[in-house]
Each structure stands twice: as structure tokens, then as C-alpha cells.
Design brief:
By secondary structure, the protein is α/β, with parallel strands linked by helices. It folds into two domains: about 240 residues, TIM Barrel; about 80 residues, no CATH class. It is about 45% helix and about 15% strand. The strands form two sheets. Strands 1-9-8-6-5-4-3-2 form an eight-stranded parallel sheet. α3 packs parallel to α5, α7 runs parallel beside α8 and α9 packs across α15. It starts with 7 loop residues before the first helix and ends with a helix. Pfam families: NMO (PF03060). One of its GO terms (molecular function) is dioxygenase activity. This is 2-nitropropane dioxygenase. It comes from Lentinula raphanica.
């Protein structure tokens, strides 16, 4: 990989490529080692599981000191923290603090300020950067003006996994956020997320004013992710129009407590069709469970953004980062030449 693509994100995190792999529950694996800058998702797991994953990350990254800076982030679901007994929520946050992670990512909560405040009051302020994911201009203004986020992640409707079903397209969302925040006294780093597939996509977001991109689906197509071979094959053959926003998979898994308006984008299959035609939840759950056990593409869950149609092979994560970096550089050079004409 050649020289650093210099942006506010690369400067903030000390990385070469303006790229983040977001928190994705159940798929981290050795992506921690090879994916530029990686977020671990806490999901529904207790503090003990997070502590174990952070210990594994420290081992994989060969950080000898138990208190040395751990150059990864941890993602928290605000609404899930809200539902927990306060001591359990604090245990999760404290686990991340004790591991000295570089960043904390907050999303999907009506009172994220409560948890951001807890972090700032109880963690050394120089330790962890605050990332806040947003799905609207209004949420972004709150993240900038009230939460004083270090990084604001604009997640468009194209994004795979969970997000707001009412979010605008990424380019519209990002431009609206940047326009509103231009005169703010607090200037965070802004990232773009949703439907991004290659280095040219990253370059286009940088051109629009983002400091970097967030890409999840592309990194599911790596041997380091915990996706199965069958799930990766489903991604390889999928077209962009095969993705759908739905709560079908949450009903199938019994994870339906997401805030109003939040759903997930994944590959449409028979689980989705059963849900849409009103099949009983018991039947959907039974078929989903069996399909997951047998790795039946017609039944199991594969989260995917709209960029999936441009992804056609499995590559090691470090090679994906290298390819994305080089594609981004090439596109930026092309754009620069056009401006000079």
C-alpha cells in the first residue's frame, strides 16, 4: 500500500486509509487484525464476553502491555443499554474503558447523551474517541452540538444491517449534515456509510466532504469474518436489487425490541417472503432455525448493503484494504486531473 490518504480520519486514528469497519455483531473474528480500523459490537452479550473478545484482540494485535492503547473500537446499542439494569450497562462500558480501546461507537438510542456523559465523567478524556451514528440531519445536529461527538457517522438508507427505514440516501444525508454543521463551533470528523463497495465509492464520499467511509458488507467477504462459506457465497451471487429492508429476520431470531423505525437490510429469501405474507411467527422461527442449522440460503440471514452487487469474490481483509486504498487513490487522481482541465 502506498502513501497515506490524508484526511481528518486518518489523522485522528493514525491510519493510512480513510476506512472503518463498523460494529457487526457475530462477525468480528480476525478482522481485528487485518482490517485497517475495526469496531467490535457488544450486541446482546454480557460484559464477560466483551472482556474475552478484547483480550483476544490484544493477543492478536500482539500488544504486550495489559494497559497499552488497544487500537480498535467498541460499538454500543443505546436502546439496549437503556433496557439493561444500570449496573450491567456500566459493566459493559467499564470493560471497554479498562481495555483502553481507542474509540466507543454509539447508535440507535433516544438518550445517547446519558451514556456519552457517563463515559466522559468516568473515563480519562484522552482515552476514547466518541463515535455517534446518525440517520438524519436532526440526529447529526444533536450529535455535534449536544454530544460533542469526535466522529459522526452518516448512515444512509443503502446500508446493510440495522438502520433507520426513513433515512435518506447517503449522498443527500451527508450533504445535508455538512451544510448544517458548517458554522458550528464544534467540528467533528464526518464519515459516510451505506451501500459503498469499492475505492471509487470512498473517493466519491471524500469529494463530497466526508473524512472517510464505513464499509461492512465488503468485509463479510473475507475469510477472517465469522460468516460461513454459504453466507459468503450468497453475497457473491447477490444483485443489489436482492437486498431488502425488513424486520423478518429480527422476528425469526426473537430480537424485535429495536426502536420504532429501525429495521435491517439483508438478502431477500423465503424467511422474508413468509413474514410478508403473514406466516405465523412460530413457523417462521422454526424454519429459520432449521435453515440456519443446515445453511439453507433460502432461510438463513445474510445482512447486505446495496453495494453487494459489485462484490464478487472472497479476499483476505488486508488485501481488501490494499485494493480499496489503491482504487481510492486512483479515483482521486482522476478527479484531480478533471479539476485541472
Amino acid at each position: 500500500m502506498s502513501e497515506i490518504i490524508s484526511t481528518g480520519l486518518t489523522s485522528l486514528l493514525g491510519i493510512k486509509t480513510p476506512l472503518i469497519v463498523p460494529p457487526m455483531a457475530g462477525v468480528s473474528g480476525e478482522l481485528i487484525l487485518n482490517s485497517n480500523f475495526r469496531m467490535i459490537s457488544t450486541g446482546y452479550q454480557p460484559a464477560e464476553v466483551l472482556i474475552s473478545e478484547l483480550s483476544l484482540a490484544r493477543s492478536l494485535l500482539e500488544i504486550q502491555s495489559p494497559t497499552g492503547k488497544l487500537p480498535i473500537g467498541v460499538g454500543f446499542l443505546g436502546w439496549l443499554l437503556d433496557k439493561m439494569p444500570f449496573d450491567e450497562a456500566k459493566s459493559l462500558l467499564n470493560a471497554a474503558s479498562s481495555a483502553n480501546v481507542q474509540a466507543l461507537w454509539f447508535s440507535f438510542g433516544s438518550d445517547l447523551g446519558k451514556w456519552v456523559q457517563y463515559v466522559r465523567e468516568h473515563f480519562p478524556t484522552e482515552n476514547s474517541l466518541i463515535f455517534v451514528q446518525v440517520n438524519s440531519v436532526e440526529e447529526a445536529i444533536h450529535a455535534v452540538e449536544n454530544l460533542k461527538a469526535d466522529v459522526v457517522v452518516a448512515q444512509g438508507i443503502e446500508s446493510g444491517g440495522h438502520g433507520s427505514g426513513h433515512a435518506p440516501p447517503l449522498s443527500e444525508l451527508l450533504q445535508g449534515i455538512l451544510a448544517q454543521s458548517y458554522n458550528s463551533s464544534h467540528q467533528p470528523v464526518f464519515l459516510a456509510a451505506g451501500g459503498l463497495a469499492n475505492g471509487a465509492d470512498i473517493a466519491s464520499q471524500l469529494t463530497l466532504g466526508a473524512a472517510g467511509a464505513v464499509m461492512g458488507t465488503r468485509f463479510l467477504l473475507t475469510p477472517e469474518s465469522k460468516y460461513t462459506d454459504a453466507q459468503r457465497e450468497a453475497l457473491i451471487v447477490a444483485r443489489s436489487e436482492d437486498t431488502v429492508r425488513t424486520m423478518a429476520f429480527d422476528h425469526a431470531r426473537g430480537t424485535i425490541d429495536w426502536p420504532e423505525g429501525i429495521d435491517g437490510r439483508g438478502l431477500r429469501n423465503d424467511t422474508v417472503l413468509d413474514f410478508e405474507r403473514g406466516e405465523s411467527i412460530n413457523v417462521i422461527q422454526s424454519r429459520f432455525k432449521e435453515g440456519t442449522r443446515t445453511q439453507d440460503r433460502k432461510r438463513f440471514l445474510v445482512w447486505a448493503g446495496t453495494g453487494v452487487g459489485s462484490m464478487n469474490r472472497v479476499m483476505p481483509a488486508k488485501d481488501v484494504v490494499k485494493e480499496l486504498h489503491e482504487e481510492c487513490q486512483q479515483q482521486l487522481a482522476v478527479d484531480s486531473k478533471k479539476l485541472d482541465l
